[in-house]
């Protein structure tokens, strides 16, 4: 698969850890991961934003592995935050997980299904 990060010179620069667009060519598999919530396999909800965010990324990692993929295959991330005050913490934890990977990205401040959940993240991956 050929993958190119696109950041047009005549459009705003990304504000940390993502590409404005990601172009894929010659990919064979495409995986859509539904919004992952911050509970574990036993439905336990961690306390605090950082713990919930790490749980969400753990859940994403589990879905990727179940599909025979890794975080290196992520091409698009959409994050739903319950409160904009978590924006910087979200960026830090996402960067911790993704490292130098720069997928296309969207962050939305939204009412989330369960008000105890502080975020939900959906992902698209390709190989």
Features:
127 residues, alpha+beta, 60s Ribosomal Protein L30, Chain: A, four-stranded mixed β-sheet, two-stranded antiparallel ribbon, 2 helices, 6 strands, 24% helix, globular, YjgF/YER057c/UK114, RidA family protein, deaminase activity, RutC-like_sf
Describe the structure.
It is a single chain. The chain has 127 residues and is α+β, with helices and mostly antiparallel strands. The protein has one domain (2-9, 16-126): 60s Ribosomal Protein L30, Chain: A. It contains 2 helices and 6 strands. The chain has helices spanning 49-66, 87-98; strands at residues 2-6, 21-25, 30-36, 74-81, 104-109, 119-126. Strand 4 (74-81), helix 2 (87-98) and strand 5 (104-109) form a beta-alpha-beta unit. Helix 1 runs parallel beside helix 2 (87-98). The longest helix is centred in the middle third of the chain and has 18 residues, at 49-66. The model has no long low-confidence stretch (mean pLDDT 95).
**Helix count, DSSP H or I runs of 4 or more residues:** 2
- Name the structural class: alpha+beta
Average pLDDT, all residues:
95
Spatial separation of the terminal alpha carbons? 6 Å
| Beta-strand content bin | 25-35%
Strand order of the largest sheet: 3-6-4-5
| Assigned CATH superfamily | RutC-like
Order of helices and strands: EEEHEHEE
Largest sheet: 4 strands, mixed
Query: Which of globular, elongated, flat, extended, rod-shaped describes the shape?
Result: globular
* CATH class annotation: Alpha Beta
Give the C-alpha Rg: 15 Å
In CATH, the topology is named 60s Ribosomal Protein L30, Chain: A
What CATH architecture label applies?
2-Layer Sandwich
Number of distinct beta strands: 6
Helix content: 10-25%
GO molecular function, one term: deaminase activity
Family: Belongs to the RutC family.
InterPro entries: RutC-like_sf, YjgF/YER057c/UK114
Protein name: RidA family protein
């Amino acid at each position: 698969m050929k993958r190119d990060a696109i950041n047009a010179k005549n459009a705003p620069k990304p504000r940390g850890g993502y590409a404005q667009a990601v172009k894929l060519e010659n990919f064979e598999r495409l995986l859509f991961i539904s919004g992952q919530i911050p509970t574990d396999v036993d439905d336990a909800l961690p306390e605090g934003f950082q713990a919930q965010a790490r749980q969400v990324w753990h859940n994403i990692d589990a879905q990727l592995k179940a599909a025979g993929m890794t975080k290196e295959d992520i091409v698009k991330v959409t994050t739903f935050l319950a409160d904009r005050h978590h924006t910087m913490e979200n960026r830090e934890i996402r960067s911790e997980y993704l490292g130098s990977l720069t997928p296309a990205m969207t962050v939305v401040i939204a009412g989330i299904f369960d008000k105890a959940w502080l975020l939900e993240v959906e992902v698209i991956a390709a190989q």
